[in-house]
Amino acid sequence: MIDLPAPKPDVLARRAEILAGLQALLPGDGVITEPARVKPYETDGLSAYRQPPLAVVLPRTTEEVAAILRFCHRNGVRVIPRGAGTSLSGGALPLADAVVLGMMRLNRILEVDYANRLAVVEAGVTNLGITNHIAGDGFFYAPDPSSQLACMIGGNVGMNSGGAHCLKYGVTANNLLGLKAVTIEGEIFEVGGRHLDAAGYDWLGLLTGSEGQLAVVTEVTVRILHAPEGQRAMLAAFKGTEIAGAAVDAIIASGIIPVALEFMDKPCIHACEAFAHAGYPLDAEAMLIIEVEGSQQEQDMLLGKLKEICSRFDPISLKVAQTPEESLAIWKGRKGAFGAVGRISPDYLCMDGTIPTGELPHVLRRIGEMSTEYGLQVANVFHAGDGNLHPLIMFDANDAASFRKAEAFGADILKLCVEVGGCLTGEHGVGVEKRDLMPVQFTPFELDQMRALKAAFDPDWLLNPAKVFPIEGNPALRPAA
Amino acid sequence: MSGASDARNGEGRGGLNQPRMPQGMLIAPAEEAGVAAAVAEAAAAGEPLAIEGRGTKRALLRPVQAARTLSLRNLSGITLYRPQELILSARAGTPLPEIEAALAEHGQQVIAEPPDLTGLFGATEPATIGGLVATNLSGPRRISAGAMRDHVMGIRAVNGLGEVFRSGGRVLKNVTGLDLCKLLTGAHGTLGVITEVTLKVLPATEAEGTVSVAVPDLETGVQALSAGLGSPYGVSGAALLPGPTPRALLRIEEFAEFVAYRCGRLREALGRFGEASLVEGEESRALWRRVRDAEALDAAPEEAIWRVSVQPSAGPGVAVAAGLDKALLDWGGGLVWLAGPATEAAHGRVMAAARAAGGSFTLFRAPEPLRAAVPVLPEEAPALAEIGRRVRAVMDPKGILNPGRMRAA
């Protein structure tokens, strides 16, 4: 279990006064304090952790965000920025003495500019909402986290979200032009703009992925792209994880960078097949879903080459989609992977490490051994092109011992990722979930320096303070007794 | 160190504005520990350091007043290359050609297509990878594949107290902790001395082709580029060559069959902007080298050079408002290279034009007196300037790393 800092006694003591102050800033229904209406905000995608906040505020404009932050800063009140609450790392977990700053009412698409290939949107617009708005004109916003139906662009910036297609299109940081944001002191500022690579320090790059600890993003200028002429998927199943890994190496060595290159292990194939009936081969130890883009002829050429490469590795099954419908069928199981695992286990933890791709067979073997040691099942989904591994650890949340074991298992996997040259998180963020593992990847000095940079933006540690960095030894965050 | 000083002033007056000699005492460690020791010693003495690789871009930005130069030239060599993992690590002083040659053996390349500015700066040595990252310089492929900063997956560096730190790692996807790779990329050595970088790399494409459209004016040219970039064909370069008949260039880099098909479709689609022809193979590559390295700007040796970044549709207006007739547009029109007299008046017009277009500028090459006298980069808004001061106080509390390089103290 993860410790949260002790609430500030003075803030709890002044609760009524603070709520009145917030209500004065957001007249109407902008401040939520009744326990029943606060409840949905007490957790996020990491639902094993829950904590009701002091209050929830729902501003509608950047100016209102600035007024709230100015007020909270003056009163020493901690602030937890929140988009849709889909974080799998507990990035939006509240604190008892904190105000949750919900961004969902800043939900306007302010401008689409096709000539300059950009869109200006407020932080509470959903990821898929951007693409849906421009898809009719043939354009899309590239990063596609699996929560894209619900998750908001402000949260994507906070976590530097990725997705299944970032091997080709990059993650959030690679698809931004500018931000409007507010400091904890309530000062509104802009970084980047409508142009590439503004001269000066790359504040845009530093703020992206800073997990809501440096500033609150209210407006985002994203790059938009024209969609390719078409895309199609193929499926290749193999007798061993090493063999599938070798096939991935051969694909990359051929000079083809598929738009997606997804790897599933046997438990994952079985879970997905039982759920989606996608026709996955149940006798395979590992399976790849490979997607390419281009004209019909280009797709044929690429898929032909990929088929030839895969066939060198004694595949159990090779299936090339001939139509968009067949592509969807191939993707259907993979896209439902989390739901599929949810069906066979009451609860699961979705881990998110990255490893050098060559280490995959070794890492999967070790995870298999740990699964036996812990007595917990695990299914692995892997973005094979970029080394991002998602083990899904199955447990029973009603059994405290089972949850503790699952957490320990997850921590061991992430330590293994670091040990083989990888990192703790590829796209979900550190949040509270991986906070106490940070010393595995960073030296005490490196952590101190990052803490000092956080403090350069937020000297009093008011913005999302209990995340990312261990709280032990941080004078601004006394652990709860 | 009057010898070095004399050489600097002599070069500053004519030629390519490039000071030939490092400033003052030269320290060039061959190990990271030596870099850390040199910085720690300078910090203890309160002595500023000029930080450089091989010093190929000394005429970029403001001159640094320092009695010591810390050169990374001897901290050189590729430390890790895994073609199948698309990852390469190299010490900061590794010359770019050495990295490119190692990648080429496996059919791979540096994604951001960094420019070779030895011609522009009159340098006699190749640029180092550390210098290219510190200056975040990217070529034409930036519009489709990202900037240098997008591909720095990991970094090792020394802060202003001589303490070694890392950020990122050697994997392609990593959101663990603050992204100091991005903070240091483009910080021109003012927040830390980069000692090693890890880059994402990609396969070089099999072929390339360029559709060249003869357009009546720059405005029409940018419209043609915009139409190409807004197509499904994956344009990887979009530049506008100046001249009596400007030429809009749109590049496809792909498998050979794809290049033929996509260039064909682009020619059809862009014919309405002007006569469209096809440039292939080595001729295409040569064309894009001239764009990448700003040779097509045709700047005279004594002229100043500016690099302005705006939204693409504003590019032609910047060239006009600056009142400079030498203009080369890249990045779909959004990157405007300008050349003209190295005067405060010309610089003032460029700054005003960039500001009016909501963009950013860099005084890219100029004689030392001009670079010392004017803002070489846009001023920051007060909130950011204050955060910048606090960030520098964390990374370089003694203010010894390239002081004054970006902005006057």
From TrEMBL, chain A:
Sorted alphabetically, which Pfam families does this protein's record hold? FAD-oxidase_C, FAD_binding_4
Cofactors named for this entry: FAD
Does the keyword field hold DNA repair? no
Give the FAD-binding PCMH-type domain ranges.
Answer: 49-227
Q: Which keywords describe this protein according to UniProt?
A: FAD, Flavoprotein, Oxidoreductase
Q: What InterPro entries does UniProt report for this protein, alphabetically?
A: FAD-bd_oxidored_4_C (IPR004113), FAD-bd_PCMH (IPR016166), FAD-bd_PCMH-like_sf (IPR036318), FAD-bd_PCMH_sub2 (IPR016169), FAD-linked_Oxase-like_C (IPR016164), FAD-linked_OxidoTrans_Type4 (IPR051914), Oxid_FAD_bind_N (IPR006094), Vanillyl_alc_oxidase_C-sub2 (IPR016171)
* Recorded coiled-coil stretches: none
Q: Which Gene3D superfamilies match?
A: 3.30.465.10, 3.30.70.2740, Vanillyl-alcohol Oxidase, Chain A, domain 4
Enumerate the PROSITE patterns for this protein: FAD_PCMH (PS51387)
- Highest taxon above the source species: Bacteria
Provide the protein name: FAD-binding protein
